[in-house]
Amino acid sequence: MAQFRAKKLDLGCFVNIMNIRDHTKRKVFEAHEPERQALRYTIRNTSLPQRTRAQAQLQLSQMHCYTRPTQIRNRCIMGGKGRGVFREFRMARYQFRLNALAGNIPGVKKASW
Amino acid sequence: MAVPASRILDLLKLRASIFQTTFNPTGARLGNKILRQRLRGPALAAYYPRRTATFSDLRKLYPGFETYDEFEEDRLEGVMITKSRGKGAPKKKRTAAESKKFQGKKRR
């Protein structure tokens, strides 16, 4: 993680070690995504020789875990919570409720029908 | 009427060149679906809002400029209130010995 972390913090929202790590993972994934996709293509191409495919498999498995998209988790930008986060609002349940009742989220009001 | 297979293959090849699709009559797995996927790196990386100008940046750039930072002022007021009640933060221990002085004392 130390090799990937930015020297100057560039998060504008709630700052938490978990948020920093998630942000770092996203940036690292963005940087390495083309390489990962190229390796995946080499692995799945049956017309290439077995040796290159096996080498590509090995190389993909040896890449740093921060390059993997599965490690990325949508966190709450107000509280850093990892669970119960709405995708549209990027906030967890309680923060969403607080902000919605305060009127900070446009177009959200209490439901009644 | 029996059409030779080579003619059909030529037709498929021509069709692929006209409509700019791939030509794969045997259906061999070539992994082209990976190449077709759009990259989602930039979209994922833009999840957390980036840091723009802050009060500390303003204070550094323009030393004489007076700013009123609401959150900072509220925080300092809270600190002053707790200090006036006598509940402020304890004094910082200078040496390791000072910090260990009360560690072993067990409550009876």
From TrEMBL, chain A:
Keywords: Ribonucleoprotein, Ribosomal protein
Transit peptide as UniProt keyword: no
GO CC annotations, alphabetized: mitochondrial small ribosomal subunit
InterPro entries: Ribosomal_uS14
Biological process per Gene Ontology, one example term: translation
A Pfam family this chain is assigned to: Ribosomal_S14
Superkingdom per UniProt: Eukaryota
Record carries keyword Ribonucleoprotein: yes
GO molecular function: structural constituent of ribosome
Family designation: Belongs to the universal ribosomal protein uS14 family.
Protein name: 37S ribosomal protein MRP2, mitochondrial
Species assigned in the record: Cryoendolithus antarcticus
UniProtKB/TrEMBL annotation, chain B:
InterPro entries found in the cross-reference section: Ribosomal_mS33
Entry keywords, A to Z: Mitochondrion, Ribonucleoprotein, Ribosomal protein
Subcellular location: Mitochondrion
Primary site of residence: mitochondrion
Renumbered residue ranges of the record's region Disordered: 82-108
UniProt keyword annotation of Ribosomal protein present: yes
Entry GO terms, CC: mitochondrion; ribonucleoprotein complex; ribosome
Residue ranges with Basic residues bias: 84-94
Family indicated by similarity: Belongs to the mitochondrion-specific ribosomal protein mS33 family.
Name of the protein in its database record: Small ribosomal subunit protein mS33
